Amino acid sequence: MHASPFRRVAIGAVASLSLVLTACSGSGTDSPAKLSDKPVTLRLTYWGADARAKLTDEAIAAFEKKYPNIKIKGQYKDWNGYWDALATTTAAKDSPDVVQMDELYLASYADRGALYDLGKAKKYLDTSQFDANALSTGQINGTQYALPVGIGVMSVVVNTDLFKKYGVALPDDKTWTWDDYTKVAKELTDKSGGKIHGTSTAPGFDAGSLKYWARQQGGNLFGKDGNVSLKPAALAGMWKYGQTLISSGASVKASTIVEDLTAGITAGSFATGKTAMIGAYNTQITALQQATGAHLKLLQMPHVGTTKANFLKPSMYWAVSSQSKHPAEAAEFVNFLLNDQKAADILKTERGTPANKKMLQHLESGLTGPDKAAVDYLSAVTPGESPVVTPNGGSGIEPELQRYSQDVYFEKTSPEAAAKAFIKELQGEIDAAK
């Protein structure tokens, strides 16, 4: 189902990235990273808000205490401003040493030589506590360019108070299908007399729901060659299912879905108690709990077939710029953020459920409420092989997908025609970046 994105894609950043990074190559060499014997100052950049900045500053202070030879200058921006600034500084050969990276942009930076091969810093960067599927989310063509900070998996979040209020039984999430999902959602709408709708959305407003839909049928959004491998029939089928959800009254109207997209996950229909189910990454339950004030539960995704369609989604990564003059120290800082208990105690789950198994185990006993529910759910899900990272040129997938989904759900075009046009447009963007 629709996994409401953590953030909005910066269209400007996609455009500026392709314009200014065309000939960007780093100063990195093939030799392994070495520590300097002189004091070093590193720059760190990340997106976020004041709460994240406060915790990050605390982690920096702890790192500087442990490594007095290395100073860290941290800088943060909001999501949109971040990508514009990173593209500009990278093109000017002035990239910060350590960068927070997102799955949508990882290949764009790696393919243009803007990121450091972390394999050259093995001496300073321990990856032994990350499972292979988590590590592969940060690899491009087998090279580790980034390490996931947190990981999530797709889920359906349900408001159990509304299920109880309207006398609807919770489904068996180990066996339920998409038809079951529609039935449960429609029952909620009907039994409430239309006061609420069963679900907040129809699939197709984010890349996660599209990947899940393709994987259920044994396919994938992108192939290992970096091209679109999604079958038009699979995409059209997803939209037809969404049309049924909306037309039956199981879901809110298409116009409300679009309004919710603008409002964001913590201010949309589910957050305000107007719907009882929403597709989201498991880690988003904490924000949804705060927004709703209701009792929430995570259910496994409905599915067709027996393929392991769910997958690990990195909340974000840490990467080192290939332009860094101090890659060893940068790797040491990333190592501290991901592998040190002091850093884990400060940062906790603010950047997602730790992808580092040892750090997650360290924090687990202290987790309560929705944070604990998110971790328990992650343990219960068996994800399949990690999907291919969004290829260079594919960073604009979400706004493109949202545009076509709106055309289908507002009945401006057929699912079949939209599927062919979307795949052609996305492949065109990828081809143009080659």
Number of helices: 17
What series of H and E elements makes up the topology?
Answer: HEHEHEHHEEEEHHEHHHEHEEHHHHHH
Distance between the termini: 32 Å
- Oligomeric nature of the chains: single chain
Q: Give the strand line-up of the largest sheet.
A: 2-1-3-11-6
SS-derived structural category: alpha/beta
Biggest β-sheet strands, sense, barrel: 5 strands, mixed
Number of strands: 11
Uncertain residue segments: 1-16, 25-29
Proportion of helical residues: 40-55%
Beta-strand share of residues? 5-15%
Global morphology: globular
Average pLDDT, to the nearest integer? 93
Radius of gyration: 22 Å
What would you say this structure looks like, in words?
The protein has 434 residues and is α/β, with parallel strands linked by helices. The protein contains 17 helices and eleven strands. The strands form three sheets. The protein has a five-stranded mixed beta sheet. β1, α2 and β2 form a beta-alpha-beta unit. α7 packs parallel to α9 and α16 packs antiparallel against α17. The protein starts with 10 loop residues before the first helix and ends with a helix.
Question: How would you describe this structure in keywords?
Answer:
five-stranded mixed β-sheet, single chain, disordered N terminus, alpha/beta, 17 helices, four-stranded mixed β-sheet, 434 residues
